[in-house]
Design a protein that fits this description.
The protein is mainly beta and 726 residues long. 4% of the residues lie in helices and 45% in strands. The chain is built from 4 helices and 49 strands. Strand 18 (246-252) and strand 19 form a beta hairpin. It is elongated.
Length: 726
């Protein structure tokens, strides 16, 4: 406990117990660490999220530091938040002249911010506020430091009394520092790459900051804080969302790196509820928050059996519906090949052959049998894509009430009887496609511009250090963010989503109709194709070798904005093996460079233009000049750990015996939402597991079971998609 006894006129003893004098039970083996995340919106008065982590084994750097407890709370963005002392008390100084004390009760199932008491102090303009529980130090911008004493640091509901004020070169430095923190009777700060430390004492009723000295110089971190005596954690921020928010751990005497990458992707103001002293947890104790989770259920993890062989077929099918989901019957359907323009440059018109036509049945379904012999250019595109034929099916119509042109565009991938291959999206893609208004014309301008890209939903997802959501909105804008109530079926004040649709006036005649496409833009983007997970003392590895085995969503623009469409299969030879080898306590996504193209597509009949639309689709593996053949993506360890394990269905759990390895080399991965931002649109992707594309884990040799669990099913079922690690 913090000692408050002060001797008038003499230097005070340390204001908190030190590691040498504290009872062993007082030392913390995990330290609550709070991240006040950046503003989610531009309004500074809006709430900011306070996110709780646990710095497990805080002094060693050899265990799973920064465990995500999944506990969050909202705090007004105009407030100042601070904590310290190891008692779970969090203070908020707001602009209304109040200081609210809260108790963190998440360890017992309560709220992160349980109100305790409100004090009348206007500290909202302070440059810095730090505390060791007993003393609260309020630094003004001019370096003046007012010192207050909390009579009940363990509960936060005592009396806060001003002790006095002081100003010195050290307090002036702290007022201007990047970060300031307090542990026991020591003050530390980071400024211009140097970490300094000074003693805090009280002479009678006069506070003093004494004996300032350098702890480390040349520190490249953006921010720093301490979980307790002898240890400093750092945070490095960069412009790259895949690497920013990297946390390192250092011993201070002497300055020594303990772990250069505890984890990454944590951004915001970080503060630790630093305790009186630190201790290591038992070596074989698996990290957990509050209480150890129930580990019943589960079985030894085994790789699922071989995938059943797919039956090649020349028949492709699909279904078109109205905007309200009702069948779109009696509409002409045209099927063409998709991969004919990979070698073309912009503004070169390509004539696209029709591979078959059909008419939608009463239930909206259709079926086309492809010719046994494909056109030479189509066959070459299929061969170049590892035997997978990418197709596009379009359905056209006109609403019967408002005469609004409607268009449906479906992307399909198949193998034919002449050649078989693995189709990644085959299992879960039913090819049900909604019709949408077709108001794009030959003179419609492309609205995407680099100057507005940062305003798009896609760019915001890509720039966020946190993993992208599993799914993104079906409708997106390439120059902004659509309203949550956006209705793509509003045309001239009428909602056409439920209007019956009839065939176009000009009947489809394959001998008198043709399709063209022109490439309007291209760009290489690094795209998420997988991820691997390892927590505690396990190691992870991800392999993506020799050929592509991924499918990426497409996007269609037939009216004012874009809609996400079905996926296109990529199976071409890459000539390289990428991924990352076994790395300890490492959970990251992996990206490869893929060339994306934007096409202007048109359908003509009897010499008249009948349909115009734009399409964004993946083309092929393509390393840009000076670019990487592949690279590690975002940190996804937020999906691992005891709290996520606690929430996982028992039926999806399995364990890897210590020292053993497990790999997913059958089935398909999950669809990674927001896998890429292409021309302002966020697209998802998934990968097929096989001998060249694997998620792997190697269990360490510590005692206890190394638990993993599948996102979508058990490991042995082949439906896991991806597995996480406890």
């Amino acid at each position: 406990m913090i000692a408050a006894a002060l001797a008038a006129g003499s230097l005070v003893v340390p204001l908190a117990a030190t590691p040498s004098s504290a009872a062993e039970g007082d030392c913390l083996t995990s330290v609550p660490t709070y991240v006040w995340e950046p503003y989610a919106v531009s309004n500074i008065a809006a709430p900011r999220v306070l996110h709780k982590y646990m710095d497990w084994g805080p002094q060693s750097g050899t265990t799973d530091s920064m465990i995500d407890t999944l506990a969050t709370a909202n705090v007004r963005g105009t407030s100042k938040v601070f904590t310290g002392g190891g008692n779970g008390i969090i203070y908020e100084a707001n602009i209304s002249g109040q200081v609210n004390a809260y108790k963190d009760n998440t360890a017992t199932g309560g709220s992160l911010l349980t109100p305790v008491k409100t004090y009348s102090f206007n500290w909202s303009s302070a440059a810095r506020i730090v505390t060791n529980g007993t003393y609260i130090l309020v630094l003004a911008t001019n370096g003046m430091m007012d010192v207050y004493q909390q009579s009940s640091p363990a509960t936060g509901n005592g009396t806060i009394t001003k002790v006095g004020s002081t100003k010195s070169s050290a307090t002036s430095e702290m007022a201007d520092a990047t970060d300031v923190w307090m542990v026991n009777s020591s003050l530390s700060w980071l400024q211009d790459g140097t970490i300094k430390k000074a003693a805090f004492t009280v002479l009678g009723t006069t506070p003093k900051v004494l004996f300032a000295s350098d702890v480390a110089t040349g520190v490249t971190a953006s921010h720093a804080w301490s979980p307790g005596a002898g240890v400093v954690n750092t945070q490095t921020t960069t412009s790259d969302p895949d690497t920013t928010g990297q946390i390192g751990k250092y011993a201070t005497a002497p300055w020594t790196q303990l772990d250069g990458e505890v984890r990454s992707g944590i951004v915001g103001n970080v503060m630790a509820d630093a305790g009186p002293c630190l201790a290591d947890p038992a070596e074989d104790l698996q990290p957990y928050f509050a209480t150890a989770p129930d580990e019943t259920g589960g079985e030894e993890a085994v790789d699922p059996p071989e995938d059943p062989a797919q039956t090649p077929s020349n028949t492709v099918t699909g279904k078109f519906t109205l905007g309200n989901g009702q069948p779109a019957a009696g509409l002409p359907v045209n099927v063409t090949a998709s991969d004919l323009g990979d070698a073309t440059t912009s503004q070169t018109e390509i004539r696209v052959p029709s591979l078959g036509t059909a008419t939608t049945a009463a239930d909206g379904t259709w079926s086309v049998t492809l010719p046994d012999t494909l056109p030479a250019d189509v066959q070459k595109a299929k061969d170049d894509n590892g035997g997978i034929l990418n197709l596009e099916a379009t359905a056209e119509g006109v609403t019967t009430t408002t005469s609004t042109p409607m268009l449906g565009v479906d992307t399909l991938s198949t193998t034919t009887a002449q050649q078989s291959a693995t189709v990644v999206a085959h299992e879960d893609d039913a090819h049900t496609t909604l019709l949408a208004p077709n108001t794009v014309t030959d003179t419609t301008k492309d609205t995407y511009a680099a100057s507005t890209d940062s305003q798009t939903l896609a760019a915001k997802i890509e720039a966020n250090p946190a993993p992208a959501p599993d799914t993104v909105p079906m409708w997106q804008s390439d120059n902004g963010t659509l309203a949550t109530d956006y209705n793509p079926y509003m045309v001239n004040g009428h909602d056409v989503s439920a209007e019956p649709v009839r065939p176009p006036a000009t009947p489809m005649d394959s001998g008198n109709c043709w399709d063209t496409m022109i490439q309007t833009d291209s760009s290489t983007k690094y795209t998420v194709v997988g991820e691997a997970h390892a927590n505690w003392d396990a190691q992870s590895s991800f392999e993506y070798e020799s050929t592509m085995s991924s499918s990426v969503e497409t996007a269609i623009k037939s009216s004012g904005n874009w809609t996400i469409g079905a996926s296109k299969e990529l199976s071409s030879n890459t000539g390289v093996s990428v991924g990352y080898p076994y790395k300890s306590k490492y959970s990251h996504q992996y990206k490869v460079p893929i060339l994306y193209k934007k096409w202007k597509k048109q359908h003509w009949c009897s010499g008249s233009l009948r349909t115009t639309y734009y399409k964004i689709e993946a083309s092929k593996y393509h390393v840009p000049g000076g670019g990487a053949v592949g690279k590690v993506g975002k940190d996804v360890s937020s999906k691992d750990g005891s709290e996520n394990f606690r929430k996982s269905p028992q039926s999806r759990r399995a364990y890897v015996p210590k020292g053993n390895t497990l790999q997913l080399s059958h089935g398909n991965s999950v669809k990674f939402g927001g896998a890429v931002s292409a021309f302002g649109i966020s697209l998802g992707a998934k990968t097929g597991y096989d001998s060249n594309h694997k998620q792997k884990i190697k269990a360490g040799n510590k005692s206890g079971k190394h638990w993993i669990w599948g996102k979508n099913g058990s490991i042995s079922s082949g439906k896991a998609g991806v597995f996480y690690s406890k």
